[in-house]
Amino acid sequence: MKTAKKKNVGINITKTGISFRLWAPNADKVTLIGTFNNWSEDEMINEKDGYWHYFSKTALPGQEYKYVIYNKDQKLVHNDPRSIHFTTSQGSSVIASSNFDWEGDKYVAPPISEQVIYELHIGTFNREDPAINGNFSSVIDKLDYLSELGVTTIELMPISTMIMDRGWGYGIDYIFAVESLYGGHYSFKKFVKEAHSRGIGVVVDVVYNHFGPDSGLDLWRFDGWGNDDYGGIYFYNDWRAQTPWGNTRPDYGRPEVNQYILDNIRMLMHDCHVDGLRVDSTIYMRNVQGHDNDPSNDLPDGWEILQKINKVAKSINPNALMIGEDVGSNEYITKPISDNGTGFSSQWEVYLPSVFRDTLKTDKADQINLSGVLDMLGRRLNNDPFQRVIYLDSHDSAANGSSYFSETISPNNSDSLFARKQALIAATLLLTCPGLPMVFQGQEFLQSGSFSDWQGVDWKKSDKNKKIVDAYKKLIELRKNVLTNSKGLTGANCNVMHFDDTNKVIGYHRWSNGGQGDDVMVIVNFGNNSFVNYSFNVPNDGVWNVRFYSTDKKYINESKNELAESYMAEHGNLSLFLPASTAIVLSQ
């Protein structure tokens, strides 16, 4: 990949005026128009390297501007690709300062082994009127709720300006601007500061595998040039441009496109204080067809830009949580760059939602297959379980023809007793098996239906299913070892010590270093039979305390099952009352 001298592109506000710099290598002439010159054309200086520059002594922050590009007989009027604010997505660029009073924000994220992620969509997470998008302010109103739930990290679906006025966020128009309907840059920074003040980190989903779609995309043939039917300077102009979302894959081999993407990383990590990034569909950045082990379609420039993204992010914040959505489970995505990997901290384990659904769709023993659960407990990348982000629901698995877990296993009745029991088994597995757990918005109170960009989270269910929320709070508390009696759940070790395929019971041991307050045993009865005196192996003799069980009356109103507070293990064996459809967490 070629390199070029890094230039200060976009606007730069100084004491004496404002500098404008634009990349348009095929332009014959470029002019600047705006409110500061009554929309008349001030001709920019050709710097002879593809860039055009103008310094204005009259332009002021808050004023609007655009660029006029001449290429032969074409006259093109464009917004600034690096603008951080627009009047509207179809309006004008606005001169905006990136200054913000962080009031000494010094947030430091906990170790990855102690993190619990909560994925949410700004537009739907908290809105009273279904016709109006949610925004950063409305999400701030729920930060205390998330803090009480115990999550450590919020993962935001994309927040960059969208071509449509409502969407999931993956139809990116301008990567530097924050969606104005969400509140723009200032509101976003306020949101990050408020989250940090509550001990919650913020990870942002970014989209560099494609821009657009091409229809209505301002970057398309930006300076009038494009090869055949392809998109011009920001994109590949051959078969490498082709993606499932249009011919809009950025040209990772162009130094100027590299800088465009990497400067966006710098802005988010440095100017906006985000604590990490989730990079969307990395497999489509490194392979034209989105295939793993497919050399004929590989993009070496794409692999290199992924490495550069991680280098830049971690040069700003060495503890940045960098997540790749690769779907291929390729270990090199999370290998260090020094070992030819791309250097991500972790990657989404996309097959897991189907494991949860397939295993827990029934409680009838003869229909339950536990092979997926066994695989889930044993899977790791580069011998590190925390290189896997594990989840029950996500924006993908709860949509795209599917629905939330509780809706899938109990259609049109996600609050049923069966749905609640199975949901708590799933939650126990999620928060006690090895990996970096993620909860999707509303999952913790059995959100019904499917995720969409028009249906808001039903917060009435958080009251209706408060006991389920309480169970999540307790499981997250255990996962983080808040009471110092479950350190094993932050450890890398897992051993399936008990497997009863006839009765569909699994028992697994989690530990960090082992010993008091560390060793954790999880016993899960997937079937619908209860056992008065069920025996299974444990790693140590002595007293084992029941820290949580999913059919506790605290969490399931209809439960009549009561476990003792503790049980004595002898000769490596422990016996207890094991209710049907129950997950139990014990520690010493």
Question: Can you offer a commentary on this structure?
Answer:
By secondary structure, this protein is α/β, with parallel strands linked by helices. Among the domains are: 10-94, Immunoglobulin-like (Sandwich); 487-587, Sandwich (Immunoglobulin-like). The chain is 21% helix and 23% strand. A hairpin with a 4-residue loop joins strand 5 (45-46) and strand 6 (51-56). Helix 5 packs parallel to helix 7 and helix 11 (417-432) packs parallel to helix 13 (466-479).
Largest sheet: 8 strands, parallel, barrel
Would you identify the regions where 5 or more consecutive residues have pLDDT less than 50? none
Q: Percent of residues in helical segments?
A: 10-25%
CATH C-level label of the domain at 487-587: Mainly Beta
Second-tier CATH architecture of the domain at 487-587:
Sandwich
Query: How many β-strands, per DSSP?
Result: 27
CATH fold descriptor of the domain at 487-587: Immunoglobulin-like
The strands making up the biggest β-sheet line up spatially as: 10-11-14-15-16-17-18-19
User: So what's the overall shape?
Assistant: elongated
Count every helix, treating DSSP H or I runs of 4 or more residues as helices: 13
- Oligomer, anyone? single chain
Beta-strand content bin: 15-25%
Which structural class is indicated by helix and strand composition? alpha/beta
